[in-house]
Amino acid sequence: MSSGIVVNVDFENIQSIKKGSITLKDNAINIKYGYNGLGKSSIGKAIEYSINNDSERFKFLTPYTGEEPSIDISNKYNLCSSFNKDFIDSWLFKASNEIIDDSYTVFYNGDSVKKQEEDINDRLKNLAKSLQDEQILNYVAKCREINSNIKFKSHNTAFDARSVVGSGFKNGPAFIKKVEESELANYSKLISLSNSPQWFKWFSDGKNYVVDNKCPYCLNELSDDFSDIQTCIEKLVKENDFKKNNTAKETILKLASITDKTDREKIKSINEMKDQLDAGIITLISEKINKANAEMDKINNLIYQKKFSIGSADETTILNFYNSNRLDESFFEEIGEDLYSSIKTINGCIDDVISQINDIFNAINKFNLELAESTNNVNNEINNFLKFSGIPYKFEIKVLEDGKSQTVIKPIQNDSMIVEEIERHLSYGEINSFSLALFGAINKRSDSDFIILDDPISSFDENKKFAVMHYLFNPEDGVLKDKTILLLTHDMEPILDMVRKDFVNGRKATNPKKICAHLILNDNGIVSEKEITKNDIKNTIQQELDLANNSSIDTYLRVIHLRRYYDLNAVDHESNEYQMASNAEHLRVKPLYKGKKGTREMDHGDVLDGCNAILKHINPFDYDAFISKYTDRELLNLYVLPTSSNYDKIRIIRPLLDHNKSVDKDMKLWNFITENYHVENMYLYGICDNKQIPDYIIRLCDELINELNKII
Fold it and tell me: Model's pTM, two decimal places?
């Protein structure tokens, strides 16, 4: 997709959103700003699930009303990655001293390392294919099951009684024969069945249903010795004994199937022995298992061979690896023809590998060089970020001999120490910083071309915030510089930093990253957006002054903005100009002076002085005419005007509620309305006059307006 293309995103029925649309620019940082509760995160999830064709998770966005959610994105992306809680939970801090799970896969996927890895794999593909043969996999599976079921005591002369075979043979392998030759001889056919444990359980439980000495199944008279038979069963056998014995004997048969012909029948005959097995027989079993395991280990070595496990070795060591893992054809020849054929194929592939060992050695050398360079790049990227964000730890990723990798952190004061229980040592901000750093490093090397960041920066202090922005977005070497970014935020700071000050690109950027910002609006479930330009971002003091001086807007609104300007500009609250602006906003017929010494009516001279100060901004202004005009009905009309913003509305409703004490107002809502005046709750900067008042607050105010309409 070409840089700068406008992408249209239309959606319906996304959780609380009924309908909406936004625009994005490809290969740009797209900032969507708005207060919490507008549905920004829901939009982000819908985009992520759509790009990734994740229909199951997309269903989670279905609103409670039941309508089917939908989204249409006008251009296609390969893959979307999101930085959110799911990312941290899925990837990070799984082990006590590891930062990221499966770091080899995530850091080297898509890197030049992968190309070298594929070159080696291509040279070994015939051997790899031969090792996936069904006969080979069945042999390995049998060996694993045998090892799981047979455990030995020291010197391999006795079974561990806790193992499957040890507990199954505690009464002798053929203890069922003993049962058949006891008082239960008449039941020998039932006892010998493979499902005899279930039969014994049924027989034992049946006594609870015997009535008048009649069989609970056929209602015939039971034999006179039935109670003796019951006692015998309870004394001789338990359901679990039969299960364990059957499993133990199945294990012995599996061992016989992978044993040479000479001893195969001897191994099978173990299942017919009534007495405890002697040390000689157990030693024989141990020897057969050891031989089978030796060959299984060779197969596993070949299956799980890793370039890096032999990568640093010389040609002789590599040659020895393959020669030492050549399979014993004479052993497998006695097991079975099909398996023997598969073993010969594997050995033939090993010969082919050995014949081109020089080329493979060179490929492994290239792989190692690329691996070392890539590892160094990851370490440097993240450590530079940590250094400039003031986090006192060092990140390190190591590729281990077994082909896995390990990511750890170390205190910068002690390079030899690995931090255990990482989440206990790092602060919330440091964990968030690490998480973002790793997210960026991973996605620099991934196929994801669309990145969603859901409020990633707002919790950082200044040094971390700028380090994060530089690390992620720097157009020269930022880890996400070639991606399309959707940054969702409820915080003004990213707007100030990226749009007003453009800290991302700086003055020396040769190929600046495009930054597009929009204010997200939600009108009763209908989502739209308004572009934010650099000129839209103004100091709040200047905004209030501009609105007070704007003759095109309603005079009452100009008064409340003038009073706000006085607040922000530290005008003395006991001055006449401030007192008269406050009286005008509250629509007091008789102006009151409210100061430290109490409240009194203002005298004519003070009123005149205050009005003259107001005239410098709002001209004409006559206090008595102003009070006469703005009746409660006029304020109600002003409230419902389409030009009245949400911020204007909560300013208008205050005098209405003051004048109509009979209206039952919720104190939580009243506190919000009154507290909104306070300077400490306002932004230093704002976007034009779009102060972010949540829609649910306005809906509550609308309910009060409806009540006022009935009584005014």
Answer: 0.64
